[in-house]
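Fold these two proteins, one after the other.
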Amino acid sequence: MLKKTNNKFTLLTIFIGFILIFDIATIISNIFISPVLEGLGLPDILIYTKTLVFLFIFIMLLVWKNNSNVNLTRLIFQVLLYLGLFTIILYFSSLYLYKYVLISQTADSIRNNILYGNPYLIFDFSAKNYKTLSYITTIFGGFNSEMILLAEIAILEIFCIQSTHYEIEEEKTHSYDVFLYDGTIPGLLILLTVSSFLTINIFTFVYDIFSSIEMAISIFAFMLVVAAIIPAFKLMKTRGLPVTKSFFSGTYKLLMVISILGFISFAGLFVINNVYLGLDRGSYRIIASFVSLIISALLFIKIYIKVSLENK
């Protein structure tokens, strides 16, 4: 378990708090300040995912710091940090690509519809292009500009690197029985990673309200599953070796929470895709969401059995 006396945890909590403030300001800007474009872009969806992830990390740090009954292992702490880092990088990439697409479309519109198009429609296309460019300039000067995101990535990466050197409390080690390790869990997580990736609507870049909800859920579920792979493999590598109870139980409980959240997410995706099927908008994603739902349920059952047998 990590020692709570390290002042770096206080600095990290403050830093996460600033990220949350910037994200909330970005959401408010997107709703009330930025011009409303036709449909929602991927960054408009990912900002909510990013906010939820860092809100979860912020709450976890506060609860752990102020509650003596809550313990946090180094592995779970690192998973949280790298999940946040991956979220920022994903949002950074989507924002860059989305702005590039908007600028490219605006340039094509100016050339084809204004310079060489119908002169009677110049005013209409100019108003539309100005609306798009205003949205882009708002992003460049807003709380989610690439410069701010780059600073967030750099500072969070420093915390990630330093996390390997944080002090831990001395604990008694135990040699757990081999049957408490299930070697199929990492394999199921890899299969779940593939199937959860297939639930993402990667062939669309602009979404309506309903499809944006589907996109947000699928990306969130995919990130959760990816975050579970390394802890699962690290746990299986300790088979037959003495480990602390906090590492053994904490890792299994982390995997259980992820499997529960994944099950809920994939159930929601399966319902959404069934609605799409009734609207003649069905796709292969209904199969991917159903397969992911079954795998996440199987993972939960396997993990729950192992956790219930732990007696150290």
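Now the second one:
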Amino acid sequence: MRTFAVALVSLFLFGCVGNIVDTELRREMTPEEIKKTLAGDDFRQKNKAREQLGKLPPSERVAVLKELLAEGDSPTRLLALSEVMKLPETTAKPIIEDVAKSDPDEEIREFAETALEMYDEEEEE
């Protein structure tokens, strides 16, 4: 019983077990580190990088997303496009228009066109 109590108190004091190995990702990441992580393969690290992306000043966030849209593989560009859609419309719309016109992947262009249609529908209402 005592061992259980010690384990329970340790859990509450030190957090959940899964976070022990993530201490490096708890620190603030540079824009370059965020970009590299978002372009990587580790889903958990990508989620951490997305959180960090939201903490960047708007101009740096836009710069990272534009770089990912220009040089990333299709899944990375799609992720970047979904993050662009979280930006204010005045910032996001020109970027999305560019993706809709010039992305090499037809599915990503279609996704961008759908996003633009959503903006147009909002303007009509």
